[in-house]
Amino acid sequence: MAQLWGGRFTKSTDQMVYDFNASINFDKKLFEQDVRGSRAHVRMLAAVGVITEAERDEILKGLDSIETDVNDGTLKITSEYEDVHSFVEANLIDRIGDAGKKLHTGRSRNDQVALDMKLYTRDQVVSTAKALEHLLTTIVGIMEENIDTIMPGFTHLQKAQPITVAHHMGAYFEMFKRDIVRLSNIKASMWSCPLGSGALAGTTYPLDRYMTADILEFEGPTLNSMDGVSDRDYLIEFLSALSIIQMHLSRFSEEVIIWNSNEYRYVEIDDAYSTGSSIMPQKKNPDIAELVRGKTGRVYGALMSLLTTMKGIPLAYNKDMQEDKELSFDAMKTVQDSIVLFDGMLSTIKFNKENMAKSARNGFTNATDAADYLVNHGVPFRDAHGIIGQVVLYCIDKGIAIDDMSLSELKAISPVFEEDIYDAISMETCVNTRLTVGAPGHNAMEEEISACKEFLSSVPGLFEN
């Protein structure tokens, strides 16, 4: 059992206690960040004269060789080590001898793991944003292709007013756009570097914390060493953002599932993102959408787990905080996989435009426009609302759409109707006369798509800080 401690102990740790305490099986994910932090630390130690330049070069060379061997599979990170930190240090000492024992000077595992987790989370924030950026590009493409594809808009899962596929997709663009901005804010809030905080009270060595912060691309060091080793707010914020992203994906998945059903037949999911039934040969199931929807609870669980873990921890570091990793790693991977797979499914979906248009027409989605027609002909809105209610009841009884009524049938309910009612309540008119900002009309949607593209062009800049 490779450990970084033991001088104070007179007998070895019970194996079950060791296994329960060890984190190597999951914190090995932090290997790259641990080596990166160690390089920065050793360069700083040499700069302030704690170690010699020769020792620095020897340690850096040893770290390079360990990283190379791990990446090519020559060296395995195994459970004989307590954690990733002991793995790196033990192998370094094996390779370069006493110089390797100086790596940990002025550093504790507490500030080391705080740094590793912050670096890892920062990397994951950026990679998640990139996945969302690609998804938004897919959505914009669909919007451009379907700017005039009419479909019903819903409230309470009942047909409400005619919109377009572009307009519907634009709503999800806004959701994921907010997610990217939220991720950008989280990355910006992770400006301070915990390395140099020590166990909780700093160190007597003349460390240059500003130097290590600069090497590791932070704006500066954490300003309180106790908070430096015990802060996980940034991770809670990221898990919260991931939960919101997954919620948005789940809502979108639910709609794809509904649209894919036999009753709706608005879309057809590509075979590559569907599966069949072991007993029913006719089935084509929207498994990816269902799994994305199902995994949302898993991501929420990671957030609630960490909030619950942190709520009773006194300052500074406590072993409870080791529980910040497993579920967080799982949530990060789950959300990124969900984004990528949903993006692939969405990019290959085929829209059944005729079914969508027919559904909009047969769902009385133009009833509001019929009422507006009467208002524009001098009828008070409340009276117009009642008249169109009678029209809808008549159509339901006859099994027809408003458009199918003859002018004489309409006039029997209100003499205000004239021949121009048919143009006023056509699906195209209903959609394209809605030109306020954010509405589904053709011109309004062209402006919205332009704004979407402008946002996409700005995304890389949001993560430069």
From TrEMBL:
Reaction catalysis annotation: 2-(N(omega)-L-arginino)succinate = fumarate + L-arginine
A molecular function GO annotation: argininosuccinate lyase activity
Biological process according to GO: L-arginine biosynthetic process via ornithine
Keywords linked to the UniProt accession: Amino-acid biosynthesis, Arginine biosynthesis, Cytoplasm, Lyase
Domain Argininosuccinate lyase C-terminal positions: 364-432
GO CC annotations, alphabetized: cytosol
Pathway: Amino-acid biosynthesis; L-arginine biosynthesis; L-arginine from L-ornithine and carbamoyl phosphate: step 3/3
E.C. designation(s): 4.3.2.1
Compartment(s) of residence: Cytoplasm
Enzyme class name: lyase
Protein name as catalogued: Argininosuccinate lyase
Natural source organism: Pseudobutyrivibrio ruminis
Gene behind the chain: argH
